[in-house]
Design goal:
By secondary structure, the protein is an alpha+beta fold. The protein has a single domain (3-111), classed as 2-Layer Sandwich (Beta Polymerase, domain 2). It is built from six helices and four strands. It is globular, with a radius of gyration of 21 Å.
């Protein structure tokens, strides 16, 4: 699976379960083991497990590979190995303590959000529409 498609699939899966502070880092220059590290926050054990499950299910459905997830039992920090991308779903205290952004955060990847693409399409569609005239307006009658 293409890395862009993989990272988009993962981010969409995280957004669907309301992950917070999703960050994607390009690690191609740092390691040959994987190309992306994705870090996200869940507010409870239940949410972190649900976020990890969402990622696993979406990546598998898209034809990607998911290797053994780690940390599912405790739910404080769940790691999902998706081959070219490694996903860390952490609770806020754990994320603040380990600061993975300091380790992998050399080169952040900026993704367009699903909502941004829809907003751009909607804006361009409304911008190309001609203004409509009401049948009963004074301009239409020539007054």
């Amino acid at each position: 699976m293409d890395i862009r498609k993989l990272q988009r699939t993962i981010v969409d899966a995280l957004e669907d379960v309301k992950a917070q502070d999703i960050q994607v880092f390009n690690t191609e220059a740092l390691t040959s083991l994987f190309d992306r590290v994705i870090v996200a926050t869940g507010n409870s054990n239940r949410q972190t497990r649900a976020l990890a499950a969402s990622v696993r299910d979406r990546v598998k459905a898209a034809g990607g590979e998911v290797r053994n997830p780690e940390g599912d039992a405790s739910g404080e920090w769940v790691l999902v190995d998706c081959g070219d991308a490694v996903v860390h779903v952490m609770q806020p205290m754990i994320r603040a303590y380990y600061k993975l952004e300091d380790i992998w955060g050399g080169k952040a990847v900026h993704l367009k959000r699903k909502d941004d693409a829809k907003a751009v399409a909607k804006t361009s569609a409304t911008a190309t529409k001609a203004p409509s005239r009401k049948a009963g307006s004074t301009r239409a009658r020539g007054a």
